[in-house]
Amino acid sequence: PELKQRIYYANHNSHIDFILLWSSLPKAIRHQTRPVAASDYWMKDGLRRFLIQDTFNGVTIQRNREQHQDPLQPIIDVLAQGYSIIFFPEGTRNLNDDIDLLDFKSGLYNLHCQFPEVEIVPVWISNLKRVMPKGALIPLPLLSTVCFGCPLDQHLVMNKAEFLIYAQQQLLKLKEVENQ
Fold first, then answer.
1. pLDDT of residue 73
2. Taking the C-alpha atoms of 118, 52, 107 and 72 in order, what is their torsion angle to the nearest 10 degrees?
C-alpha cells in the first residue's frame, strides 16, 4: 500500500463490503479513502446516516436520475479534493449466486476519463454474502477475504465497452487467484 490517490473498485455482495475493504487499508490510507454508497439505502434512517457520514466519511450518490444531475458529481468533487474512493461499478449488490459479477455501469470508465492520473485498483471481496446475507442485522462470524490486485494499466487506450470488460477481467483474475 502506498499513500497515493486511488480508485479501489470491488465486487459488491453486501452492505458491509466497503467496511471490510476500508478496514483492510492501513490507517493513514484509510483516512484519505472515502467509500461511495447509495443514498437511498444509507440515508434512510439516523443510524445509517451516522455510520456513512460520521463514522466512515462516505460519499453518498443518488442512483436515480430524477434530479437531472450527474450521479457521479459527488464522487468527482471528492476525487478533485485529492481523496481516494472505494467504488462498486456493478451499481448494486449482486445477490445471484450463479453470477460472479453483474455488468459494470459506465461510472468507472467516466471517472477514469476525468481522472486519468488516478490509479484504479481492483479488489476482490469473498464470502460476504454469507457473512451478511440480505436482511441480516448482525454479521455472522465467518471468514472473508480481501484480495488487492495491481493497478490497471493507465496507458491502454480503450473505448468504454473495452475498458469495462478489461476492468471486469482484472477483478475476476483476483477471484481465480484467491481460489487457488
1. 93
2. -90
Reading the block at residue 131, the C-alpha cell is 457473512
The 10s digit of each residue's pLDDT in 80-136 is 999 999 999 998 777 666 778 889 999 999 999 999 999 999 999 886 555 555 665
Distance CA 118, CA 133 (A): 33
Buried b (16+ CB within 10 A) or exposed e, 9-32: bbbbbbbbbbbbbbebbeeebbeb
Contact between 63 and 91 under an 8 Å Cβ cutoff? The reply is: yes
pLDDT of residue 17 exceeding 70: yes
Nearest partner of 37 among 11, 55, 63, judged by Cα: 63
Instruction: Find the range with the poorest average confidence among 2-6, 62-66, 83-87, 133-137.
Output: 133-137
Amino acid symbol at 154: Q
Judge whether 13 and 93 are in contact, CB under 8 Å.
yes
- Strand order in 119-126's β-sheet? 59-61, 33-38, 84-87, 6-10, 119-126, 145-148
